[in-house]
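User: Okay, second chain of the day. Same drill as before: sequence in, structure tokens out.
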Amino acid sequence: MPVPSVRHSEVDVLIIGAGPAGLMCANALANARVNVRIVDQRAFKLTTGQGDGLSPRTIEVLQSYGLAERILRESCQVHLAAFYNPSSTGGIELTNRTSNVTAPSARYPFEVALHQGAIQDIFLDSMTPLGVKVERSTMPTSIELSQDEHELMDPTSYPVRVVLQRLDKSEDESREEIVHAKFVVGCDGAHSWIRKQFNITMDGEQSDSIWGVVDLVTPDTDFPDVRNKALVHSNHGSVLLVSREQDRIRVYVQLEDKDVVNPATGRVDKEKMGPEQILATAQKSLEPYKLIRKSEFLWWTIYSVGQRVASKFSIKNRVFITGDACHTHSPKAGQGMNASMNDSHNLAWKIALVVRGWADMPLLSTYESERRKFALDLIAFDKMWSTLFCGKPLTEEHNDGVSPQHFIKTFQTDFTSGVELHYNPSVAVNDRNQELASGLILGKRVPPYKFMRAADAWPFELQDLLPSDFLFKLLVFTGEFGDPLQQARVESMVVDMQKPDSFLNRYATPEDPRFDIITISKGRKETFNLFLLPTLLRSHWSKVFIDDTDPTGNFGGEGYSYYGVGPEGALVAVRPDGYVGAIMPLDHVEGLDAYFESFMKIPA
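Assistant: Same drill. Structure tokens below.
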């Protein structure tokens, strides 16, 4: 019998693993029209369980891809957090209720809960019309990275060789394919095969606590906060309840080692405890309240978590790891799926710009420098939070226990919302002129604010003018254009931007504009005339906005003040991922020339 021939193929980006990180990356690259493939060893897509919480910042990111509307429609919004502690009578009692999200600049001041399978379906439905589908029952069996430095630095080369094996083919069919890729992204989870092939270590430690999780339809209960996020400290252990979509809830329960650890191996043994015992443990901790199951369990698991960060996130800027492949932590802070998806959001635009020939290879180094620092900060927070959550509550018997006040204060930090994420200076984040726009922090995301479109006084959220379309947005705060002195400043700036050696003319072409100019002027809707602006600042009538109240007078009109922009105006370069990259005065266009020159390529 003839041996089936091995197929060879080329691809810009090969993604290994179709969880949240992999699908986020594949969808982003598909939208950038990058040639991308995504493979997954599992034969079927996820339908239940796994991650379920999205933070305010992640919802903002999904909105930038046009996906937030469906997420909000299908999910459960979690607005309140309730805190319970031991009562004097032996059970638990309500100590406090507070807002679940305390970040003042959150556009969506709540978390949403939706099971991971439904979230992944949203990505799958977005990718499919773009010609990208998950290739299931497919796994890598070997990966080789070229050692030729010239080839590695050439963005048009294919230096990564991956052998894929199809698990659903018969032996007389060709089961192997050799893929030559420009880039490979390992999104293959905590036991990442990609990470192991390159001997990347996971640095950190295993947490001592073991938790059980059950998903079920909202039970018969007299527990007042069954539809809020409830954080329970009891004398029998800790419990976390999270409301879910479609009348479901999830219950996390702290378990004792003796109940779930196999003494011979020292490992968690799922055979020792099932969902009934997990729920019974929760019921004991929730006394005097009852929690009676009405139907079958939807999903359950038992786990202990390692709090670890990979020693590196990238190999030669050609192979990357994201999500659980490069950081693992407890679910108590609700960051797993959020961190994973935001890793991919950070990486995708950088790969897309390099593949398109718009950016040089060194830009890719900022993925590791930005996301590894975040992962280390996340682990530090997770250790502190898990210690408090799993610790004995403060009682007369435990006078060194966790006080309710300290627990709530830690809960109310802005870290978990994601909106305070701050990237350090790099080629992608300038560190000058912060005083020109004190509310647009260099290295942080653009906070939401509504401006009026000059042409029709239609209110627009600024974040919605910054879609993830892989263009840099140039926010031109012109100040009061009706003032003759300010008008002269703006017109002089436009002359500078139209010079042959300015960044607009060096890097942009009619076919590949690279930049989207959005003009924000001070002025009144009753008298403002957008056609008095220089043509460059109004490439289309829909690109000009004024900082004025909406026609009803209910909101708006304080955007300059909110963003800390003075009457002299400012130029603000926003990266394709929605983070502030550079700020310059109107009379210093050459500052933007230098910023873009540090990583952009002139068209061939």
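The chain has a mean pLDDT of 93.

User: Thanks, on to the next one.
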